[in-house]
Amino acid sequence: MTFCTVINCMDGRTQLPVNQYLQRKYNANYVDTITEPGPNRILAEQADQQKLDSIFQRLEISIKKHNSVGLAIVGHHDCAGNPTSKDEQERHIQKSIEFLKTKYPDLDIVGLWVDDSWQVQELG
What we know:
By secondary structure, the chain is of the alpha/beta class.
């Protein structure tokens, strides 16, 4: 059994396309899903320690107990939890990746954008 992990928005419109994308990308059987409204902003700003602790507590389980082979952080069109432009959300995703890499330098970490057609694009 292979697992990967995603820190995704709680918005149900993003779940299926993101999970399918990650299963293909990492050849994973399962996707451990950590959800928060606007998680890319939470990780980028690092202002809410309680939310950060909650995310990292769940992330530790996925990495240590399920041996996750990869991690994605997601932003998406029409996000109620992070109602900013695509460009701003992409900046949040990049800052999130930088922050996550300080804690998990050996884990493959990618940023994903889900557009207005609910298609997943990996950020380069």
